[in-house]
Write a structure and sequence with these properties.
Residues 1-5 and 74-88 have low confidence and may be disordered. The protein is an alpha/beta fold. Helix content is 52%, strand content 17%. It is built from seven helices and 13 strands. It has helices at residues 85-114, 116-128, 130-151, 157-188, 195-209, 216-233, 235-238; strands at residues 2-4, 9-10, 14-17, 20-23, 28-29, 33-36, 39-42, 47-48, 52-55, 58-62, 66-67, 71-73, 76-79. The chain starts with a strand and ends in a 20-residue tail after the last helix.
Length: 258
Amino acid sequence: YGLVGSEMCIRDSVSVMGGRVTLHEGSVVEHDVTTMGGHVEIERGATVRGRYATLGGSIHREDGAVVSGHVEGSGMGKSASKRSEEPKSFLHRVGDAVSNTAILFVLGVVFLAIAPKRMEMLRVEVARAPMRQVGLGIVGFFGFLVAIVVLCVTVIGIPVALIAVFLGLVGLYGGMVAGLTVIGAALVRHKSENPYVHLAVGCFVFFVVYPLPFVGPPLTFTLLLLGVGVLVSTRFAGFFPTKKKGDTVDVSGESPYR
């Protein structure tokens, strides 16, 4: 949570994860504004020289706010005044829920089809210790940010950082899909053992809960942390295994998820 005061210039990007930031009139952000599970308010007279994007969050831009770059993601709102925002906000959240749920479901189907054993490994860890995964997610998120900053110090490290960000996003979606699949399994596994059915039910729960003002943001934020944490605990779904002498790597295992 924070405020960017008038006449204040930020020469870097602004990133929000699960919090709220307001850019007041006269403030300037030289690069991008992004949010994951949080909210950014860009008031009239504020300037963003880069783009603005959201994943599981929302960005509201008032008339008169200047954004030079293009818009990515969903959850972007624009209204002439704050008084006109509230009647539309629920509809905006419903629209966000539709688009974000569709992305998660489609990617989930792809992940389950091309990497069933890897996804099973993620689901096992989520079902075994969900709160541990959330805690690891906090550590993993900040560790990943530090690693990216270190890589970007050198010109050679920048391409590596870009690849790492891409792979990190793919893995993050995989972890979130695993979490939703476990939620679905908890509700309907007595009727079906099909992971695609579990995914569909988990995505439906996400769609229903996401627009709720006091429930949706914490759920999304927790799901994001869960996705990061399960990647850390499984070493990116077994792609970076620790193999002791005489041990073999097993990505199937016995599943408490089942």
